[in-house]
Design a protein that fits this description.
Blueprint (H helix, E strand, L loop, with lengths): L13 H5 L4 H21 L16 E9 L2 E8 L5 E8 L2 E2 L2 E2 L4 E2 L4 E7 L8 E7 L4 E6 L10 H22 L3 H6 L2 H32 L8 H24 L10 H28 L7 H19 L10 H12 L1 H12 L2 H26 L9 H18 L5
Antiparallel strand pairs: 1-2, 2-7, 3-4, 3-6, 3-8, 5-7, 8-9
Helix pairs in contact: 3-7, 3-8, 3-9, 3-10, 5-8, 5-11, 5-12, 6-11, 7-8, 7-9, 7-10, 7-11, 8-9, 8-12
Length: about 400
């Protein structure tokens, strides 16, 4: 009987191996050619197109307004392809003197204009910036309020606000843990469904808020696109974190994450959401657009108390969570409101706000994906009367408490 023939992979001869191009060279050669071609197009390619006809394309936008006694400071950014030279500035159709560090604003560059103008508190103003070619940009100040100085007392107030609307409400909501331990399994699934509803409402609300903030900005760095960039980065980052936690946990289950892993992911998602919330509070307070009275702080606190319930819902199956772990979860979820208030009060930027809010959306979506296995009934269904009722309850709770923020 003939011996069975076996196929073997071709073996490179020494002559062939000696002349083989390294793998890194196969990648480096096309990249080098691409870089060279783009550099040539950028440096000498424009000369082959002839002289461009028509006036320059000028477009500037106001990013930030700071009001001091006798001064209005505007941070403007050039949004067009051509450099812009500021020629004149008017306030309510009155020419005003201004100071700037540079006469010309390059493409995508920013410049600060300091206007010498004796503005009056609580009065509206219309600022018109006129370029050297006559192009105009208008910026409205609905109510003039002096911008608070960023001193120690101001940051202390921001920290106190972050504690009021972030840390304390989350901690109070986590007090529901003893109750959740005493209820039956089907009620646990119901409360997990409530958590899904809470997080879903937060994600939708954050998307609407982030879109509005992005549209109000200059759009120099992408505008609303930053929402999706932040969401994608946060989602993928939390997926990687979840895989890391499962790999290190001896109690990892094939049907989903462990109770503490779920609670941690929920805390991170809520923390990123509270970061965006603190950002909005700090920026609004810094420009005097938010009357932070006791009733409004109460509304924020009530609104965020439900977030603590969402964190401890997965821990109802965990018999002995340590106080240190519970405290850590509360700080992860609530403390970012303090950081957001700091950023918003000192260096608010709509583009940064959109990116951070997008990160919160991505984190919340990833957490919802993790929660779905926990709400399935014994038949494996994720949507059944009790779970749908829980989801709608979560949406209704945040909707009703959110109404306090608009009154």
């Amino acid at each position: 009987m003939e011996a069975a023939t076996r196929s073997h992979p071709p073996v490179d001869s020494p002559q062939t191996s000696r002349h083989r191009v390294p793998v890194w060279a196969l990648a480096a050669i096309p990249l080098a050619l691409i870089v060279a071609a783009l550099a040539a197009l950028l440096t000498v390619g424009g000369d082959t197109l002839g002289e461009r006809l028509g006036p320059p394309v000028e477009e500037i936008a106001v990013e930030r307004t700071v009001l001091r006694p006798g001064e209005i400071e505007l941070t403007v950014r050039n949004m067009g392809p051509d450099a812009v030279t500021v020629g004149q500035v008017f306030v309510n159709d009155t020419y005003v003197d201004y100071r700037t560090t540079g006469a010309t604003i390059g493409r995508r560059a920013a410049e600060t204009l300091t206007l010498d103008y004796p503005w009056q508190a609580d009065s509206p103003y219309l600022v018109t910036v006129v370029s050297a070619t006559g192009a105009t940009t208008e910026h409205e100040i609905p109510v003039a309020v002096e911008t608070p100085s960023a001193d120690g007392g101001f940051y202390g107030l921001m920290a106190l606000l972050g504690v009021y609307v972030g840390v304390i409400p989350v901690a109070l909501g986590m007090l529901f843990l003893p109750l959740l331990r005493r209820v039956r399994e089907h009620w646990i699934r119901f409360f997990m469904a409530v958590t899904v509803g809470l997080l879903g409402f937060l994600a939708a609300d954050a998307y609407l808020e982030g879109t509005e903030i992005a549209e109000a900005g200059t759009g120099a760095f992408g505008g609303a696109k930053l929402l999706f960039i932040g969401a994608g980065a946060a989602y993928l980052g939390l997926v990687a974190l979840d895989r890391f936690l499962r790999a290190r946990s001896e109690r990892a289950r094939t049907t989903g994450a462990s109770p503490f892993q779920l609670a941690l992911l929920i805390a991170i998602g809520i923390g990123l959401h509270n970061l965006g919330e603190g950002l909005a509070i700090g920026s609004a307070y810094a420009i005097g657009e938010l009357a932070l009275g006791a009733f409004l702080v109460f509304g924020f606190a009530l609104h965020n108390t439900t977030e603590g319930l969402a964190i401890v819902a997965p821990l109802s199956a965990h018999r002995h969570p340590s106080p240190a772990r519970l405290a850590a979860l509360g700080l992860i979820a609530g403390a970012p409101a303090i950081l957001g208030a700091f950023i918003g009060a000192s260096a608010y930027n709509p583009e940064l706000a959109a990116l951070l809010i997008g990160a919160g959306i991505g984190a919340i979506v990833q957490v919802i994906v993790q929660l779905v296995p926990a709400i399935r009934d014994r038949a494996g269904r994720a949507l059944y009367p009790a779970s749908v009722g829980g989801i709608l309850t979560g949406v209704a709770v945040l909707y009703l408490t959110g109404l306090l923020l608009s009154t």
